Amino acid sequence: MQPDYTAILETIFAEVQPLLSQGKVASYIPELSKVSAQHFGMAVHCLDGSTYSIGDGGQKFSLQSVTKLFALALAFAREGDAIWERVGREPSGNPFNSLVQLEYEKGKPRNPFINAGALVMTDILSGRFVQSDIAVLQFARTIAGENSVDFDMAVAQSERMTAHRNYAIAHLMKDFGNLHNPVKAVIDSYCRQCSITMTCAELAKAGSFLANHGTIPWSGLQILDPSSAKRLNALMLTCGTYDAAGDFAYRVGLPAKSGVGGGILALVPGELAVAVWSPGLDATGNSLAGTYALERFTTLTARSIF
Ligand code: GLN
Questions:
Q1: Residue 165 Cα: closest atom of ligand 1
Q2: Which of 34, 59, 189, 258 could crosslink 133 through cysteines, CB 3.0-4.6 Å?
Q3: Which pLDDT does position 33 carry in this prediction?
Q4: Alpha-carbon distance 278 to 20, whole Å?
Q5: Ligand 1 contact via 26 beta carbon (within 6 Å)
Q6: In whole angstroms, how far apart are CA 177 and each of 88, 104, 123, 172, 174?
Q7: How much distance in Å is there from the Cα of 285 to the middle of ligand 1?
Q8: Ligand 1: which residue has its CA nearest to atom 6?
Q9: pLDDT band at 2 (very low <50, low <70, confident <90, very high)
C-alpha cells in the first residue's frame, strides 16, 4: 500500500524546524551566502505520476553538485565504460574539493561526484559538444520536462571569481594529462553547469528516470539502459554524498546526490524520486536538515534499498 505522503511530509516539515538554524550556508561561493538558512522544501515524484510537495518545494535553488549527476548520466550514456579510464568509482573518504589523492593517484579522480571527477566529466563532454554546460542544461530540461530550467549567471560568475581550488585541481590533472581542454574553458563550463537552478518538484521529476531503470516514466524516453541506470544508482549510494556516504547510507539508505546549495536528490528504485532543499550545511557540505528529512522519510515510509 502507498504511504500517506502528504501526512509524512507534514510530519517531517514540523520536525525539521528546530534544525534549520543549526546548519551553515555555504559562503566560499559569495553569491550562495545570500540565501537564508531558514528555507526548507521537499517534493516526492512517484513513478505513477503522483506528486507531493511541502514548504519551499516550489522555490528555485542552486543545484551545484547535484548537476554532477546529470553530467555523469550524459557522459555515461554517450561514452559508456570508456569514462572509467579517466575517473574511478570508489568513494574518496575526503572532502568534495580535496586535492590530496590526486597527486599519488596520478591525476585520476576517485569518482565522478567529487570536484576533480566532475571536472573530468566536463572535459569529456567538451570533446563531444560545442559547449558542455549547454549540453548539461539541455539534458536537465529534458529530464525535468521543463524548458524554463536555466543557469543562474550571478552564481556562476561568483564561483568563477573564487574558483581557486578548482583551478588547482584542474591544473594538477592537466599536468598528469587527464584534462584535454584548456583549464579556464573547463572551469567556466563547470561553474555554469553548477549554477543551474531547479525547484524540489522539478528535481524530483528530473531524477525519476534513475528510479525507473533509466527511462523517463512520464515520456517513455530511454536515457540509460537498465544496467547503466543500476550502476549510476550504485555510485550515488557509495559516492553521492562525499565523505559522508557511509553515514548517509546508514541513516537514510537510499542512493542520493547532494550539492552545497543545500539540495539532495534521493531515489527509491522502482518507486519514486524525492528532492529536499535546505541551505544550512553540515561539516561535510551536505544539507543538515535535508539529510535528517530523508532519514525520517525512509523511516516513516518504511522504504529504503535495504
Ligand atoms: N560548484 C561547487 C564547487 O565546485 C560544487 C560543490 C558542491 O556542491 N559540493 O565547489
A1: 10
A2: 189
A3: 96
A4: 7
A5: no
A6: 16, 14, 12, 9, 5
A7: 9
A8: 65
A9: confident
Cα gap 55→150, rounded to integer Å = 22
Contact 216, 223 (CB under 8 A): yes
pLDDT (tens digit per residue) in 233-279 = 999 999 999 899 999 999 999 999 999 999 999 999 999 999 999 99
Candidates 3.40.710.10, 3.40.50.2300, 3.40.50.720, 3.40.50.150; CATH matching 65-194: 3.40.710.10
Which residues have CB under 8 Å from 238's CB, separation 6+? 89, 90, 91, 111, 245, 249
pLDDT for the residue numbered 205: 98
Q: How far is the CA of 115 from the centre of ligand 1 (A)?
A: 7
Q: Is 242 a catalytic residue?
A: yes
- Domains 5-64+197-301 and 65-194 agree in fold: yes
The total number of residues shown for the chain amounts to: 306
State yes or no: 147 annotated in a binding site: no
Q: CATH number of the domain at 5-64+197-301, please?
A: 3.40.710.10
The answer to whether 68 is a known catalytic residue is yes
Look at residue 61 and give its three-state secondary structure. Answer: strand
What pLDDT band is residue 227 in, cutting at 50, 70 and 90? very high
> For residue 191, which of 37, 35, 60, 29 has the smallest C-alpha distance?
29
Q: What ipTM did this prediction achieve?
A: 0.95
